[in-house]
Write a structure and sequence with these properties.
single chain; Glutaredoxin; Pathogenesis-related Protein p14a; 2 domains; 4-stranded mixed sheet; 11 helices; 8 strands; Thioredoxin-like_sf; CRISP-related
């Protein structure tokens, strides 16, 4: 019996040692100034992995413990994540101390060279707004819902009654072209809207073919009086994928798809990937020399671009990203 008791003691001792070792590997140092009820300490051993189902839900504050600006941001962040809208959405927020030597590679890997940095992991978007709770909540609204499937696995929003629409093939092609890009950005798919289609068709029949010209706001109003957003294209023998790809190509004037303030010539691209837009209707006119799309709600709202323009997710840039979401846009509807 003493021999067996010795083995039992040894097993318990090893189990306790293993538990202590595991605990030391999963717990991160917590600086009270940066963590709280809704902000958890993160470090190399528990940092969210890209393969996890919650990765798209994370916002991370990279800070240095002795940084005054970091502490000021932390105060605003704590208020923002405690807002009912953020709690309901399930946004996960963590904080990493980049002055801790064990986190050096983690911070460098996310290209954090100065502090503070508040980052949405899935998009790499960094907060550049004021230390204002409402502004920070608005920015964090672009965080994906917890457990969101990768974009290529999301089900396209397709109306089951295309055959009831006027110009059903055109509707399907324009809608698919838009939703490929929105899929690549990980945001909600658009639906086809008959009122937007009718106002787009009405203007396309009289729009000039020698220059880009927008319709009057009064000519593109929805059922409830709101003005639709509008994209316009001109050319010869246009087709849906070509038109939408041309608009989206303005992404070349951005930094990886992120909006650049005071940069002209981005309005078509930003409307396509405007987060709050939910519906679209498009039409051709003048023997396919003019293409018009109307959007509801309208995008390009002043002062909202930094939070509303959705860049492509990592791995979903260019042709490869389009193929992962279902098709190469420029080929949709090609003659």
């Amino acid at each position: 019996m003493p021999h067996l008791e010795g083995h039992a003691f040894a097993l318990l001792w090893y189990a306790g040692l293993a538990a202590a070792f595991q605990s030391s590997q999963t717990n991160c140092a917590a600086n009270p100034a940066y963590v709280g009820d809704h902000i958890v300490p993160l470090c190399a051993v528990n940092f969210p992995e890209k393969s996890s189902t919650t990765y798209a839900s994370w916002v991370v504050h990279f800070y240095a413990g002795n940084c005054r600006h970091c502490r000021e941001l932390a105060v605003t962040l704590q208020k923002a994540v405690s807002a009912p809208a953020m709690l309901k959405k399930g946004v996960k927020v963590g904080a990493v101390d980049c002055h801790d030597a064990s986190n050096a590679n983690l911070c460098r890997g996310h290209k954090v060279w100065k502090f503070p940095v508040l980052m949405i992991l899935s998009s790499g978007s960094r907060y550049t707004g004021p230390l204002d709770t409402a502004a920070m909540v608005d920015w964090m609204s672009e965080v994906s819902e917890p457990g969101l499937l990768p974009p290529m696995l999301q089900k396209m929003s397709v109306c089951p009654a295309f055959h009831l629409y006027e110009e059903p093939q055109l509707a399907r092609e324009f809608l698919m072209a838009h939703n490929i890009y929105r899929c690549a950005a990980g945001i909600d798919m658009l639906e086809w809207d008959m009122t937007a289609f009718q106002t787009a068709r009405s203007y396309a029949q009289k729009a000039p073919t020698d220059r880009l010209a927008h319709s009057k706001p009064s000519e593109r109003r929805g059922k409830h009086g709101a003005t639709f957003g509008e994209n316009v294209a001109i050319g010869e023998h246009l087709w849906p994928g070509q038109v939408v790809a041309r608009w989206y190509d303005e992404i070349r004037n951005t930094q990886g798809g992120k909006f650049r303030p005071n940069r002209a010539g981005l309005g078509h691209y930003t409307q396509i990937v405007w987060r709050k837009t939910r519906k679209v209707g498009c039409s051709f006119g003048q023997n396919r020399r003019v293409a018009i799309c109307h959007y509801d709600p309208a995008g390009n709202e002043r002062g909202k671009h930094l939070s509303q323009v959705a860049p492509p997710l990592p791995g979903f840039f260019g042709r490869e990203g389009q193929e992962r979401c279902g098709a190469v846009v420029e080929e949709i509807g090609a003659p």
